[in-house]
Amino acid sequence: MRWPVDAPVSQAFGSNPTNGIRPGSPDYWIIQQFGNYQPNGHTGVDFSVPIGTPVAAAGSGTVLHEGWMGGTYADNPWWIAPAFAGICVVIDHGSFIGIYGHMSSTSVNKGDFVTEGEVIGLSGNTGGSTGPHLHFEVLPDGWDFNNGMYGRVNPAAFISANAAMGPAGEVTTIPTPTEEDDMFTDNDRAVLTAVSDAIFKGGQSTHKNKSLNNMLGSIWDAIFAGGASMPGGKSLSDILGKVAEAPAVTVDPAALAASIAESIPADLAAQVADELGKRLQGGK
Question: From start to end of 124-272, where are the E strands?
């Protein structure tokens, strides 16, 4: 077995886990764009190659798929993210299934038998890719989708010790968006996108399609700057200030007593007026 291209590795198997990345982290852009797609690390090996680089079969085998990977997860038994993998080739190499993703074109057909080193197509930047590269994954015989890596294992275990490969270079870190591969479901991605849009762009799930940022801004303006939703367009601060500046209400006990006396007996009116006067003057 051999590597499909002779080029630097830009993202190694198991690198850059996305689990635990939270809002406010400099790496959070990757969650916003792809979701928590590789919680335990990268599920393949990415090779940094320009578009049009010949891609060779890692070993002899039968082509199971070539071309655009569409449909749903139910349409392929390998759990290759529909549409995200772009143009890809899937080959049964005997001891493992080889998956070659984000290609620009293929030169084989489903059912073809290929030999190790035979060119199966050209690398590209199709599907969910943010930069030209080849993504290579391995599903071993008897793979377990619950192994934490969607059944994938490190391809290096199947590559001959003397196989040629270029210098590894530096593994791409998450803040540098050269290329990333998404193993998240379409539904998960849609939910995350809807939440992000509601907060930052607004949408059908928000009041008058306004974003949360806009709504918070409107509340802030209403309190400190006034607006159409406030009486007279005044701010809440101004309204509260006017209330604080309003003159105190004073009551003349004698006038109150005279008013009460017109409807109740004089002695009772006097007692009520006296008590009210005490309360209005602070209980003195």
Answer: 134-140
Secondary structure element (H or E) that encloses residue 89, with its range: strand 87-92
> Token pair of 55, please?
């891609």
**Would the pTM count as exceeding 0.90?**
no
Max distance between CA atoms of the chain, in angstroms, equals 118
Kindly state the tokens that stand for 117: 């080193």
How large is the angle between the packed helices 186-200 and 212-224, nearest 10 degrees? 20
Domains and CATH numbers, the chain: 9-181 (2.70.70.10), 201-245 (no CATH), 249-284 (no CATH)
| Contact indicator for 153, 44 with CB cutoff of 8 Å | no
**Residues near 177 by Cβ (< 8 Å), separated by ≥ 6?**
29, 30, 33, 130, 131
**Strand pairing of 45-47 and 54-56?**
unpaired
Mean pLDDT, each 10-residue run in order, the chain (284 residues):
94 84 77 71 91 96 95 87 91 95 96 97 91 94 89 90 39 37 57 63 60 63 60 66 62 68 68 72 60
Chain segment 166-198, per-residue pLDDT in tens: 333 333 333 333 344 444 556 666 666 666 666
First-to-final CA distance of the chain: 101
Q: Facing residues of 137 across strands?
A: 99
> Is 217 within 8 Å of 77 (Cβ atoms)?
no
State the DSSP code for 145. T
Structure tokens at 244: 């604080």
Residue 208: exposure state from Cβ atoms within 10 A (0-12, 13-18, ≥19): exposed
Q: Rounded to whole angstroms, how far apart are CA atoms 250 and 277?
A: 11
CA 136, 173, 183: angle at the middle one, nearest 5? 45
Strand ranges (E), the chain: 9-11, 45-47, 54-56, 61-68, 87-92, 96-106, 113-114, 119-123, 134-140
